[in-house]
Design goal:
This protein has a three-stranded antiparallel β-sheet with strand order 1-2-3. It is 48% helix and 10% strand. It contains seven helices and five strands. The longest helix has 18 residues.
Length: 135
């Protein structure tokens, strides 16, 4: 029953494409290398060939999420902001927000955090990061 409801709601929210993206695991070496190359000041990776970064266009092409529209982001937090919860009340409205922007901001913050501290784990959209790195 629940899956039927979710399957019917996802196309309305524009999250249907991302629901088909699988979880990528077992690439800790790639993640470690990317974190080592991340530069806080430029929010980019410094490679032997130059500076590169994940862009909003990459988010659009890889995850299929909207990158324009009303921006949904706030100060960094582990938990959802109470003030943002009303954004999720209307399935028709969910698809009008720039979730791609929010995911990219969260990825940048996660990379900055991981590059500053001796982190053993990193959150953020690692699937986005890995697919971007492979392309």
């Amino acid at each position: 029953m629940w899956h039927l409801i979710v399957d019917q709601a996802l196309p309305t929210t524009r999250f249907y494409h991302i629901s088909g993206v699988g979880e990528i695991r077992g690439h800790s070496t790639l993640l470690s290398a990317l974190v080592e190359m991340w530069r806080l000041k430029t929010h980019s990776f410094v490679l032997p060939t130059g500076k590169v970064t994940v862009t909003l266009e990459d988010v659009l092409h890889i995850l299929g999420l909207l990158i324009d529209g009303e921006i949904v982001t706030d100060k960094p937090t582990t938990y959802a902001q109470t003030k943002d919860l009303p954004l999720l009340q209307s399935f028709e409205q969910i698809g009008t927000y720039s979730w791609g922007f929010a995911i990219l901001v969260h990825l940048y913050r996660s990379l900055c955090h991981a590059s500053l501290y001796d982190c053993k784990e990193m959150d953020g959209s690692l699937d986005l990061l890995f697919v971007w790195a492979w392309e």
